[in-house]
Amino acid sequence: MPSSHRSWRCNVNQGGDSMALKVGELYASFGIDSSGLDSALSGIEKKCSSIAKGLAVTGAAMTATVTRSVVNAAKSIYDSGTSFHAQMSKVGAIANASADDLETLTQKALEMGSTTSFTAKEAGEAMEYMAMAGWDSEQMLAGIEGVMNLAAASGENLATVSDIVTDALTAFGMTAEDTGDFVDILAAAAANSNTNVSTLGESFKYVAPLAGSLGYKAEDVAVALGVMANAGIKGSQAGSTLRNVLSRLADPPKAAAKAIDTLGISMTDAYGNSMPLIDMLRQLRTKFQGVGEMSAYPRKQALKRPHISERR
Fold it and tell me: What digits encode the pLDDT tens for the residues 254-267?
């Protein structure tokens, strides 16, 4: 429904009581098709004007004048509202939220439904994935806007983006407060390489748990996946390949350890700390530039491990 769709109010004084109808913003929140509603509302407004001039109309007679479009609109609002509240009840059950917390989450979902391109129910579905990832109410409130902004900017399914973000944040030991930073990382990687958010999410699914346990930054992993995507290695293939590289570098078998020693690759800095992933990848790139200058046997040994060199 266009954002310009009007909400309207008709007041009818009966013995000091005021009747008020306000429906426009409900359509914005629930994403209901409002075709035909404006003309129906115009008719109702004219009827209200007549009533205001002194026409006494009983409740039953008033109902009889409501057009079919408004009846259908009311049914649509009721059905959508029921579906939305069922979705939020699911969120509350998974998150074990209190009544007050659930009300706050519900209001936030309604706000997102009226201020973004997504419906309130879709916001609730995103919250469901957050709850499944173990986020509490405060964390969901902190992270929902960043997730929805990324989904809107990327054109991806909102629930899918929520699943990607929550899983990756957990893997890298990040918190809900880091959601804004992480969605910026994903957006930048997708915008500057031959991939997209959902494909990056598939890659992160395979490599993020190991990368996070090794203390590597999400930003460095995203850069590595972006470089691989530019070489045509994407999705689960990219995630699995990078995971295998990191695994063999972290705990190399005998042949891999010999190749690493031959190439002069250092896994730690001068203080014995693990080298940042981006520095290690730069080091690998530099070292392999000289592979052709090595003797035949070391060169063969270094290159026969595809997880280290074949993709270079």
Answer: 887 888 788 888 77
Between CA 202 and CA 205, with CA 204 as vertex, the angle to 5 degrees is 65
Residue 123 tokens, joined: 């916001």
Instruction: Supply the DSSP string of 154-211, one letter for each residue.
Output: HT--HHHHHHHHHHHHHHTT--GGGHHHHHHHHHHHHHTTT--HHHHHHHHHHHHHHH
E-strand stretches of the chain:
12-14, 17-19
% of the chain beyond a pLDDT of 90: 47
Angle at the Cα of 19 (from 13 to 22), degrees rounded to 5?
Answer: 140
Q: Distance between CA atoms of 125 and 143, rounded to whole angstroms?
A: 14
Least confident of 128-142, 205-219, 289-303: 289-303
Neighbours of 28 (CB within 10 A): 20
**What is the identity of the amino acid at 232?**
G
pTM above 0.70, yes or no: no
Write out the DSSP string of 79-98: HHHHHHHHHHHHHHHHHT--
∠ CA 198-227-260, nearest 5°, is: 125
Whether the CA torsion 275, 277, 281, 282 is positive or negative: it is negative
